[in-house]
């Protein structure tokens, strides 16, 4: 498929923008402005590189897309945003070319716009409720809020670099933040801004959580996450890596031995689930998490320079239909697998992955096998994977999730020849912290229970993000972090008032 080049898109957008510049646009005229296509790398080219797939709006495109917004009085898009960004105001600022103001508006409620603009599922959040989509009777025609957010965040990075938020005078209070994903980054930034001393304790050798070890470079360049981490450091947040809470130090010790005044747990949901089928222990079967971590965190895709090698896949089966499955499949393509098959037991409509990512995977040559599920993985005499036996399914009545339940069709087994199987059927929370801290109450899935302020069953201990919600999203993790930070600040302020 041939794509319009960024130059062509910019030329067309500039022509249109010039034709409306300075005019007082009516609602009808705004609705007639065509939605702007985001420039992207050619699918054939990008199969063999790890660089970002989408290239971001050009300036004229961004201003034109912003002009599609109707500036609704009752801005329903804001209700769809988990952190309540003032969407119409920042879009108006982009339309006017006031980019510094646009980013300042976003920063009031979202500290990671360059990341959210890339990975948030806007089509299910702010854009799902946008009036423009409703008028066109097509939610995909909504104003591209996420792409505008990305444009203005990238504009700031390329023109001014990320600024350092102001930090209030030291309060003398110390907070330990476990993990360094979006929940923890938000907590650390919010509490540091209030003048509290913050230390992040991260198990891996690099901070950033799933944004670094899970989501691949071609969707979220690591330089952007590193920038955010540097901003925290410049604010005075201390980051200690290779620090596994539960092993390096127990949670209690953070209070008793290290003297922290409060603790936030943002340890995520990094424990992969398996299918429990025959053949899952064969050589060539990986959790998608391990496969992605090796590729992203250890940069194993860079075969010439990587210190840890990665298995060279030839024919791959990926089990699952979420974002993680799409990332694993598309990473396998870039590792030069000849054939990548996604096996999913429902249909495309029920896939939890973002539609855009499914389209991208398809463009890159990933094959989809819907209404199929692995029954067993087949091995040879060396215990290596040689194939996967799948059962066909049909859809029955809706289940608890509201999606139609897949029902197996007896006797429908077929075999797909593969040498690599990537299991991507979801993640649970890692039990290390809860096992070593029995007072922490959890639900039946091992997620930490909190009240509406993010407080756990333990005094002075708060939690948020995937460890509380189960595997969710970046923006929801940030929302949880924001809530917990406000509660921790209140606690620390009341401590100071008591001792005054
Ligand atoms: C492959 C993949 C793709 C995804 N794609 C998207 C997407 O497109 N859009 C989206 O919104 N969401 C996506 N998600 C989900 C999203 O990344 C998570 O919901 C989000 O990162 C959760 O944030 P968090 O702060 O709770 O934890 P995480 O980002 O999981 O970070 C937790 C951190 O805690 C550390 N840790 C764990 N235990 C300990 C311990 N005992 N001591 C010290 N440190 C510890 C971990 O090493 C990790 O760095 C994706 C997830 C995956 C796996
Ligand atoms: S709902 Fe859509 S059109 Fe209305 S203010 Fe929000 S982004 Fe603009």
Q: Can you give a write-up of this model?
A:
It is a single chain. This protein has helices spanning about 5-20, 25-30, 45, 60-65, 75-80, 85-95, 100-105, 115-120, 130-135, 145-160, 180-195, 210-215, 220-235, 250-255, 290-295, 325-335, 355-365, 430-435, 465-470, 475-500; strands at about 175-180, 195-200, 240, 260-265, 270, 285, 315-320, 340-345, 365-370, 370-380, 385-400, 405-410, 415, 420-425, 425-430, 460-465. Helix content is about 35%, strand content about 15%. α7 (about 100-105) packs across α10 and α15 packs across α16 (about 325-335). The protein is an alpha/beta fold and about 500 residues long. The protein has 3 domains: about 5-160, Fumarate Reductase Iron-sulfur Protein, Chain B, domain 2, CATH 1.10.1060.10; about 175-270 and about 430-500, 3-Layer(bba) Sandwich (FAD/NAD(P)-binding domain); about 270-425, FAD/NAD(P)-binding domain, CATH 3.50.50. The structure holds flavin-adenine dinucleotide and iron/sulfur cluster. Flavin-adenine dinucleotide (FAD) binds near residues 209, 466, 474 and 477.
């Amino acid at each position: 498929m041939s794509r319009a080049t960024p130059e062509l898109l910019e030329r067309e957008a500039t022509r249109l923008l010039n034709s409306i510049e300075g005019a007082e646009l009516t609602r009808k005229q705004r609705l007639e402005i065509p939605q702007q296509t985001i420039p992207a790398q050619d699918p054939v080219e990008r199969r063999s590189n790890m660089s970002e797939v989408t290239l971001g709006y050009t300036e004229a495109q961004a201003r034109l897309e912003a002009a599609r917004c109707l500036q609704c009085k009752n801005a329903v898009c804001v209700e769809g945003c988990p952190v309540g960004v003032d969407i119409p105001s920042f879009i108006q600022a982009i339309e006017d070319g006031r980019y510094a103001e646009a980013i300042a508006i976003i920063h009031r409620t979202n500290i990671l716009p360059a990341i959210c603009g890339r990975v948030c599922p806007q089509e299910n959040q702010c854009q799902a409720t946008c009036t423009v989509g409703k008028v066109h009777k097509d939610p995909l025609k909504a104003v591209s809020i996420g792409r505008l957010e990305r444009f203005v965040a990238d504009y700031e990075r390329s023109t001014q670099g990320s600024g350092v938020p102001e930090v209030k005078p030291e309060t003398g209070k110390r907070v330990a933040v476990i993990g360094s994903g979006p929940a923890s980054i938000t907590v650390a930034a919010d509490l540091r801004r209030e003048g509290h001393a913050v230390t992040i304790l991260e198990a891996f050798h690099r901070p950033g959580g799933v944004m670094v070890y899970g989501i691949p470079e071609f969707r979220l360049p690591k330089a952007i996450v590193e920038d955010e981490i540097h901003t925290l450091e410049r604010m005075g947040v201390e980051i200690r890596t290779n620090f596994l809470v539960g092993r390096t130090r127990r949670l209690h010790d953070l209070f008793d031995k290290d003297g922290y005044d409060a603790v936030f747990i943002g340890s995520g949901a990094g424990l992969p689930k398996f299918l429990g089928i025959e053949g899952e222990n064969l050589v060539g079967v990986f959790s998608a998490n391990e496969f992605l971590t090796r590729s992203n965190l250890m940069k194993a895709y860079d075969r010439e320079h990587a210190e840890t090698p990665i298995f060279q896949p030839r024919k791959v089966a990926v089990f699952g239909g979420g974002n993680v499955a799409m990332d694993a499949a598309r990473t396998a393509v870039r590792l030069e697998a000849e054939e990548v098959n996604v096996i999913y037991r429902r249909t495309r409509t029920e896939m939890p992955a973002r539609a855009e990512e499914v389209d991208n995977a398809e463009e890159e040559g990933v094959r989809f096998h819907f209404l199929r599920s692995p029954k067993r993985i087949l091995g040879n005499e060396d215990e290596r994977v040689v194939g996967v036996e799948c059962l066909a399914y049909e859809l029955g009545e809706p289940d608890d999730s509201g999606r139609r339940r897949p029902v197996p069709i007896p006797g429908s087994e077929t075999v797909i020849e593969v040498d690599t199987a990537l299991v991507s059927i979801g993640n649970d929370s890692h039990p290390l912290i809860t096992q070593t801290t029995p007072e922490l109450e959890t639900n039946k899935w091992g997620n930490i229970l909190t009240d509406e302020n993010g407080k756990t069953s333990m005094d002075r201990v708060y939690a948020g993000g995937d460890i509380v919600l189960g595997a969710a999203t970046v923006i929801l993790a940030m929302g949880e972090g924001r809530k917990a930070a406000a509660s921790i600040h209140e606690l620390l302020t009341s401590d100071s008032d008591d001792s005054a």
